[in-house]
Predict the 3D structure of the following.
Amino acid sequence: MKPAPFAYHAPKTIEQAVAILAEVAPEDGRVLAGGQSLVPTMAFRLARPAHLVDINQVAGLDRLLVEGDALSIGACVRHAAFHRPGAPAPLGDLLAFVVRHIAHYPIRTRGTFCGSLAHADPASEWCVVAVTLGGEIKARSARRTRSIAAADLFQGLMTTALEDDELLEEARLPLLPSNTRWGFYEFSRRAGDYALAMALATFRLEDGVMVEPRLGLGGVEASPRRIPEAEALVAGKPPEIGIFRKAAEAAADVVDPLEDIQASGEYRRDLVRAVVRRALERATA
Ligand SMILES: Cc1cc2nc3c(=O)[nH]c(=O)nc-3n(C[C@H](O)[C@H](O)[C@H](O)COP(=O)(O)OP(=O)(O)OC[C@H]3O[C@@H](n4cnc5c(N)ncnc54)[C@H](O)[C@@H]3O)c2cc1C
């Protein structure tokens, strides 16, 4: 099918973009970034925005650079920008590993990091990364600019704290201390499919024990989130399989899994056991 008719806007500056968005947001005006989620839903007429504000020509939104102790990712930075480490290790290596789980190469050359956060698919890899690492986003409108912690951004299935007239201008991920260990594990039916469950684990290994563990899950519940019950079980403990199993069990106990055509809730719960344990094992390997 073809999309329903819409007006197309192509601002050249961020100020123009948010001014247009302020005008058209009340009439279902939407930002167009990589178009890899929005355009298919328009083609199926599941979305019928009256206006598209294409941000691809806005100067400066393709910035990907280290600023202080964070990696700053502009709204037009494509997934493919992370194929090679775009930040110092270990963060750069983590992102370069995770990106290969997102869709297929052609989609990664168009889709954007920030578009994934704005779209808030529960099975988005970048959403899990942002929540687990304690990332934040800069939301800009004609009215104001504000920061939102990634943990507060996701408010349910494909729902964020962004207002209709707000542009997600930039995401920031903290750089990781050099002794950070990380492990990511995703289960999907076929390579390139959305994950049915995924886990990201990070910690520092100091004097033989795991320090400041972070464990994030995605694809399981309506929004990605950290699992404090599992983190508490590994904190201060040596990295051993028995501890990983306990953490995985604790995570499986506390999740409220989605049920859909892909998987039952109980199947997803079982996947949580596997992905949490394997993410922790990978962090130790
Ligand atoms: C076949 C297929 C498989 C895929 N598999 C995966 C996968 O495994 N994992 C995964 O994470 N994704 C997957 N995707 C989605 C892909 O990663 C998209 O690129 C991503 O979800 C959205 O990014 P985008 O830049 O394309 O956003 P768009 O499609 O342009 O926009 C998506 C939504 O976010 C809004 N938006 C976008 N950018 C901004 C912004 N800066 N500010 C405010 N609102 C904004 C739009 O208005 C729209 O509502 C897949 C897509 C396809 C077609």
